[in-house]
Amino acid sequence: MMRSILAAALAAGFTLATVPASAQQFPSRPVTVVVPFAAGGPTDTVARSVAAGMEKALGQSVIVENKPGAGGTLGADNVAKAAPDGYRVLVWHIGMSTSPALYRRLSFDPLKDFEYVGLINDVPMTLLVRPSHPSKNLAELVTWAKANTDKATLANAGLGAASHLCGLMFQQAIGTQLVTVPYKGTAPALADLMGNQVDVLCDQTTNTTPQIKGGRVRALALTAPSRLASLPDVPTAAEAGLKGFELGIWHGMYAPKGTPKPVLDKLVSAMQAALASPEVKNRFAELGSVIYPVAQQTPEALQKHLKAEIDKWGPVIRKAGVYAD
């Protein structure tokens, strides 16, 4: 019995010894959250809210760094190639699952080059038209779009952006191709919509809610199964007559492959603590964003969800024939 106890103690000591001291002491300096888009966009809003909550749990500053470019893949590649020590993580949306189909020469593998922290939130999209648009509801917009395919303009924030994906789904749902107008981000696309320079834009509620409430754009439909308390007057697409047009833009947190499990566990715990905080809950509720249940705020849930989303979006994107080198 004594030999067994001694052997167990030695084994436990060996296990601890194999964990680097830096991992045991994590974090001993600020943690950086990389957002692969410009500041002020919907993903940036999500990341900054979560980062502020994580600071309390980690006892260290959590800095948000914006690294826009190439539809989000530039920032993702930066984190994939970072030191696997937990001090550099990524917050990215559904683009992590669409990038394999959109980019022929992707510099990272979403399923092999990252450790998973967990799912954060799901954000529905709003289908918007310019303030002076003649369509007052979704049925009128579909009729108008079919009659004006040569001049009906559909804005998006660039290849792979949430607005781009939503636009693809909308065109497939109504069986009509519109004139797409890509921008270098959501802000300029939304600005031109408000200025009556383009006709239609589909974007996340985290970005559009203030403009809808302020009357600067007209919302015709929501890509969610039910209405939002923050936008009670905006019908779902199904209510407006377009069944099956549902899309949620989910966000997840990732760390470089090889990040030690003790470090990853602390990141998971800190993210979950942030999402449980009243400040983050209230902020997300104001913007129509739904926080995932705790059971899905885990590495295993994110990995499973990412794989399913890659399988889902691949055929949609290939059918649309869009890609980038």
TrEMBL record:
Gene3D superfamilies in UniProt: Bordetella uptake gene, domain 1, Periplasmic binding protein-like II
Record bears the keyword Repressor: no
Recorded superkingdom: Bacteria
Species whose genome carries this gene: Quisquiliibacterium transsilvanicum
Protein name: Tripartite-type tricarboxylate transporter receptor subunit TctC
Signal sequence segment: 1-23
Keywords: Receptor, Signal
Residues in coiled coil: none
InterPro entries, per the entry: BUG (IPR005064), Bug_dom1 (IPR042100)
Similarity section: Belongs to the UPF0065 (bug) family.
Biological classification of the source: Bacteria, Pseudomonadati, Pseudomonadota, Betaproteobacteria, Burkholderiales
